[in-house]
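Service request form, structural biology core

Requester: graduate student, group of Dr. S.
Request type: structure prediction, single chain
Budget code: on file
Notes: please return the result as structure tokens.

Sequence provided:
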Amino acid sequence: MLREEYNKRGTDLKAKYPALFVNSRNMDLSINPGWFDLFEHMCKRLHEELPLQYLKRFKFEQSKEKFGTLRVYCTFISNVQLPDHIYDCNYVPANKQDEMLALGYEPIPSDVIALMNTIVGEAMTKSCTTCDKCGKPAPGLYQIGHWLLTRCEEHARADVKFFDDDQPLSDYQLSRKVTFIGELGN
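Core staff response, request fulfilled:
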């Protein structure tokens, strides 16, 4: 996927699901191209399944690849200005709840937080078996050099050549450079 196409898909995604990104305007979509469909499906589910009053408070913090899998960090923002001594509206200490309620604070129900975590968790789990380059099924995680990557066999072999400065490698050398770590997820 070319950089222009990637940027356009990100812009289109934000336009398609504006409620998910209204509190995340400056969030950079650091999603490997092969996982873009996973991320888009996750956005669709969040948009359709989260109750509207909480969807308005949804915020993406970050998306990235870490240790060969997709990571998505998100939360809900407060509906009121938080006092200085309370840092996260999703985890208000018991001794501060009355103070927050007096300000008009509406807590996020635990079942809504669990729904968000389930939808995001399913996308991250699916990334364990999806090539981050092309989106095809991948057997699992490979170690290539010092990197952990979720790749289909074709891209795993191609990346070994990339990491070795395009030196031709025999099948034996490839097998020594690419270590299949194992099946992840499910």
